[in-house]
Design a protein that fits this description.
Its cofactor is Fe cation. Pfam families: 2OG-FeII_Oxy, DIOX_N. Residues 207-306 form the Fe2OG dioxygenase domain. InterPro entries: DIOX_N, IPNS-like_FE2OG_OXY, IPNS-like_sf, Oxoglu/Fe-dep_dioxygenase_dom. The chain is of the alpha+beta class and 358 residues long. It has one domain (3-356): Jelly Rolls, CATH 2.60.120. It is built from 9 helices and 15 strands. The strands form 3 sheets. An 8-stranded mixed β-sheet has the order 2-3-11-8-13-6-5-4. Strand 9 and strand 10 (255-258) form a beta hairpin. Helix 3 (68-84) crosses helix 6 and helix 4 (97-111) crosses helix 6 (168-192). The longest helix is centred in the middle third of the chain and has 25 residues, at 168-192.
Length: 358
């Protein structure tokens, strides 16, 4: 598309304040041009004959506080998964299934509520709660097939009245549970690095928490677009709750691997900032979400990082992990600087890590 044509179509789409769901509700049968993505010829593991070698680890957190042997096994599993995949699923994580189900229902309820009520939250200006379609709508090469809301949780929690009534109670309840779970996960990651259990938490990795609720409507031509483009997360860690529909894939050994929905499980993936401070020991892996022809998909991704809160604090490779044989591979940076570089220079979803390599 010519730039002026795309700009005109993007503006018209944005001004409806109805997002991708509004297009589907209108009964479209063709995906608009602004959502067309170049074809990706990377192999997909699910289409391979040897799918069993491409399975995301599932780690059982049961008894990690009572049984030292169970904790040791979990720490070893977390280390292996963090070094190899940068992704793993967790079960027996402590968040009740009832809360997980209510949170998925809450995301669905927000996006499927009355349009006039939902439109009141539509904005691109920074607020404690924001609803919009495509955070990089005006900068990206192509739009993605999803609508989102953003909720900032920490270090400054939102006022209840700033949140939509339809999901207010469960959003606060769920994110408070995720915050506690994040502290436990950072303990396990610290131990997996050979550090004191409190190291990453004291280092500031758990200071910030914000969440994106995503709604991926069913798509009439899923082969032409994506729910989320290939990207890595510019945070320390992400905890993702996805529904039963599926569509999340990670890039591993030049192949797309499905991350299948598991009832009661949460997905944990490490972000670019963890790779930076661990000096490449732990991996931040690119991932995407494919569009689907069937039912709408919902998810909520909780990000640990102070992206939306300015801070002068800098982060670099952890000194305890460095040696003469393993010198620092990255220069120090603040999260604000890191994110600004990502948003201004990495518009195609590429990681900003290379910019900070020594």
């Amino acid at each position: 598309m010519e730039d002026f044509e795309r700009e005109k179509e993007v503006k018209a789409f944005d001004e409806t304040k109805l997002g991708v769901k509004g297009l589907v509700d209108a009964g479209i049968t063709k995906v608009p041009r602004i959502f067309h993505h170049p074809r990706d010829n990377t192999k997909i593991a699910s289409e391979s004959e040897d799918t069993k070698n491409y399975t995301i680890p599932v780690i059982d957190l049961a008894n990690i506080h009572e049984d030292p042997r169970a904790r040791k096994r979990v720490v070893e599993s977390v280390r292996d998964a963090s070094e190899t995949y940068g992704f793993f699923q967790i079960v027996n994580h402590g968040i009740p299934v009832s809360i997980l189900n209510q949170m998925k229902d809450g995301v669905l309820s927000f996006f499927e509520q009355d349009n006039e009520v939902k439109k009141e939250f539509y904005t691109r200006e920074p607020k404690p709660f924001m609803y919009y379609s495509n955070i990089k709508l005006y900068k990206a090469v192509a739009a993605t097939w999803k609508d989102s809301f953003l909720c900032n949780m920490a270090p400054v929690p939102p006022k209840p009245e700033d949140l939509p009534i339809v999901c207010r109670e469960i959003l606060l309840k769920y994110l408070n549970q995720v915050k506690k779970l994040g502290s436990i996960l950072f303990e396990l990651l610290s131990e997996a690095l050979g550090l004191n259990p409190n190291y990453l938490r004291d280092y500031g990795c758990a200071d910030g928490l914000y969440a994106f609720g995503h709604y991926y409507p069913a798509c009439p031509e899923p082969e032409l677009t994506l729910g989320a483009v290939k990207h890595a997360d510019v945070v320390f860690m992400t905890v993702l709750l996805q529904d039963h529909v599926g569509g999340l894939q990670i890039l591993h050994k030049d192949m797309w691997i499905d991350v299948p929905p598991i009832h009661e499980a949460l997905i944990v993936n490490l972000g670019d900032l963890i790779q930076l401070i661990t000096n490449d020991k732990f991996k931040s892996i690119e991932h995407r979400v494919v569009a689907n022809l069937g039912a709408p998909r919902v998810s909520i991704a909780s990000f640990f990082g102070t992206v939306y809160h300015q801070s002068t604090r800098t982060f670099g490779p952890i000194k305890e992990l460095l040696s003469e044989d393993n010198p620092a591979k990255y220069r120090e940076t603040s999260i604000s600087e890191f994110v600004v570089h990502f948003t201004t220079k990495c518009t195609t979803g590429t990681s900003p890590l290379m910019h900070y390599r020594i």
